[in-house]
Amino acid sequence: MRARHVLAAAGAVAITALFFRYVPLHDFVEYWTAAHALASHHNPYSVADMLPLQRALGWSEPEPLVVMSPPHFLPLLMPLALLHSYSLARLLWLVVSAGMFVLECFALWRLYGGCERQKWISVGVAALFFPVWHCLAVAQIGPLLLLGIVGFLWLERRGHLFLAGAALALTTFKPHLFYLVWLALLLWSVQRRGFRVLLGAAAAIGIGMAVALLLDPAALSQYATLVRSDYVWKYNSGLGGVLRGLLQDQSHALQFLPMLPGLAALAWYWRKYRLAWHWSDRLPLLVTVSVLTAAYGWPFDEVVLLVALLPVAVQCTSLPLMRKPAAAWLLGNFAASLGFVLRYGDAAGMTVCAAGVLGYYIFAASRAGAEYQPGTLQETCSQP
User: Fold this and answer.
1) Which of 26, 52, 104, 150 could form a disulfide with 138 if both were Cys (CB 3.0 to 4.6 A apart)?
2) Distance linking the first and last C-alpha atoms of the chain
3) Is residue 379 a part of any domain in this protein?
4) How far is CA 369 from CA 36, 115, 276, 277, 362, in A?
5) In the 8-state DSSP scheme, what is residue 257?
6) Is 383 inside a domain boundary?
7) Mind listing the pLDDT tens digit for each residue in 161-191?
8) 243 touches 259 (CB < 8 A)
């Protein structure tokens, strides 16, 4: 039986490899070219340097895709520089990303009290969540961001606060998506007068930055130049991008306007729960609101909302009343997200999943009352 599984997996990889040369260039092209530019001592944040590298791969857009993550992300790209075949690198990235998603789903399932023999439900939920497919299709770094959240929850639960902070540092590859999480962490640390989580995050970022500067001593100034350029304003994204599009106003301030209700929500949430703050209970909703109100974001970034979906899935295994509404919501959210992306583009699509998750939490709480507490840890697997 195991031999059959190995042969089936090998066959799937081989078939995928054959078709990969026909897969359109997407976001992975920015990671592959940045790694090779870095290895050849070129500027990985340069629009001018990236364009010819991407043209050689068949990129036909007038502007190249440039990595927007800060320099401490660059060392993680360096293994790509060892691969001279773009198709092979893209295939390996897909395999690793899918594997990470499976392991992260299993970890969240266990973390929130799911029954071990039902852990595959978590993968089924992820398979019906549109951002997962979008993320895998364009080869984005969502699995790394989710790993930061999952690692933080696991390590914090076990009291390894320094390592929990080091894991959470992975979310700083796209810090705008988690701005409420980091603000809440700062408040929590000040209240407890303990800063091990923040120190762990600072240490991890510092090590990553040191390695990046060894690879490219000018990485910080190159990144600063990119951030100050007009390149970052070329694409409308997230709720702020929707506002800019609707109002036909390219004011930069509009991009950040949705953060104001996000900050207000954090102030209310912290005041209500600060004396009983447990990260496994609070993080799902906090991540949801942070992603929804982020200044920038794309639908594939919303894979981090699995941290909010899987506690719901665990609860539904013990609450039959909620199973049908949850399944209907999941399918409806997939259809709505895909429809918005196809009809209105990625900026509008970014708002659908996070708003849907938030809306479902509110609906479930109102329908089931005190019996249903999304994000509340509960053991649902009866022991034999």
Assistant:
1) 26
2) 28
3) no
4) 54, 24, 20, 20, 10
5) T
6) no
7) 999 999 999 999 999 999 999 999 999 999 9
8) no
